[in-house]
Amino acid sequence: MTPVLDIRRLRVERGDTVILREINWRVAPGENWVILGANGSGKTSLLKSLTGFLAPTAGEFSVLGRSYGATDWRTLRLHIGVVTSAFAAAIPPAEVALETVISGKFAQLDLWARVTAAERTAARRWLRVVGAERVAEREWLYLSQGERQRVLIARALMAKPRLLIFDEPCAGLDPVARQSFLELVDRLARRQTAPRVRNGRLHGRHARATPALVLVTHHVEEITPAFTHALLLRRGEVVAAGPRDAVLTSRNLSTAFGAPLRLATRGGRMALSFR
Ligand SMILES: Nc1ncnc2c1ncn2[C@@H]1O[C@H](COP(=O)(O)OP(=O)(O)OP(=O)(O)O)[C@@H](O)[C@H]1O
C-alpha cells in the first residue's frame, strides 16, 4: 500500500544551524502518530518541510506517493490539513465560522463567487462533526479558544485531507475543553481505524478517504489510545520511531527531553514525572 508519508534522510540546514538531521519516517495507512520532543527539537520544522514551507537541504520524501520536487506543492497541500493556532491571526475577525470552514476547501482561490449550497451543507456537517454547529454564524472575533480549534479542524476536514496534522492543539485550552477536544480527536481517529467493510469494500461514511492523524505535543497526557505510533525528536534527530508501546518508554522519553523521567499509565492515560 502506498504510504501516507515516506521521509528518507531528510536534512534541513540554515546557515551554520542544522535544524533536522537524517530524519527517516514512514506513515502507513491506518496509522496515527504522535510527535513528541522538547522545545527546539525540530517538530515545527519537520511539519514545515512536509508542507513545503521549509526547503530541505538533502534527502527525499513523498506524500501519498507523490515525491517532493516532482509534484506541485499546491497539489500536495490539498491533501495535508494542518490545525495550528498559528493560523488564528490569518482569519478575518469578522468572518463567521461557516465561512471559515468553507474557505478550507478553496485554499487561496477566489472563494465567494463559487460557494454552492452543497458546500454550505458540507461545512455545516463538518461543524456538527466537531461539535461546533451552534457557532456557525458567529464571528471569529467572538469565538473562544476551544471553539476556534474546532472550527479550524472543520476547516481542515472540508478539503478532505489524507493527512491531518494537529500542531499543539491544546495550547490555551482549559482542562475541560482540553479533555473534550481530545475526545473529538480520538473520535476522528476511530472513524479511520474502524471502517465498515462489506464484500471487501469500504462502505458508508468510511467509504470516503479518512485522514491519517499526526499530533504534535509536549504532553503525554494528550496521547489518546487512537494514536498507534510515536516519533520522538531531540535536537533535530529521531530518538525513536515506531509502535507507541515500544517507543513511549521512560528511557526514550528521558533521552528525548534530556532529563530523568518516569512514564506511568493511570486509567488508560499516560503521565510523566521526574525520577
Ligand atoms: N529558518 C531558521 N533558521 C535558523 N534556525 C531555525 C530556523 N527555523 C527553526 N530554527 C531553529 O531550529 C530549531 C528547531 O525549531 P522548531 O521550531 O522546529 O522546534 P520545535 O520542536 O517546534 O520547538 P517548540 O516545542 O518550542 O515549538 C530551533 O533551535 C530553532 O531556533
TrEMBL record:
Q: Entry's Pfam families?
A: ABC_tran
Key word Heme present: no
GO CC annotation: ATP-binding cassette (ABC) transporter complex
Indicate whether Coiled coil appears among the record's keywords.
no
> What does the record give as the organism's lineage?
Bacteria, Pseudomonadati, Verrucomicrobiota, Opitutia, Opitutales
Q: Which SUPFAM superfamilies match?
A: P-loop containing nucleoside triphosphate hydrolases
Q: Which UniProt keywords apply?
A: ATP-binding, Nucleotide-binding, Transport
Q: Which SMART domains match?
A: AAA
**To which species is this protein native?**
Opitutus terrae (strain DSM 11246 / JCM 15787 / PB90-1)
What protein name is recorded for this chain? ABC transporter related
- Which CDD domains did the record assign? ABC_cobalt_CbiO_domain1
All copies of the ABC transporter domain together span: 2-260
- A single Gene Ontology molecular function, please? ATPase-coupled transmembrane transporter activity
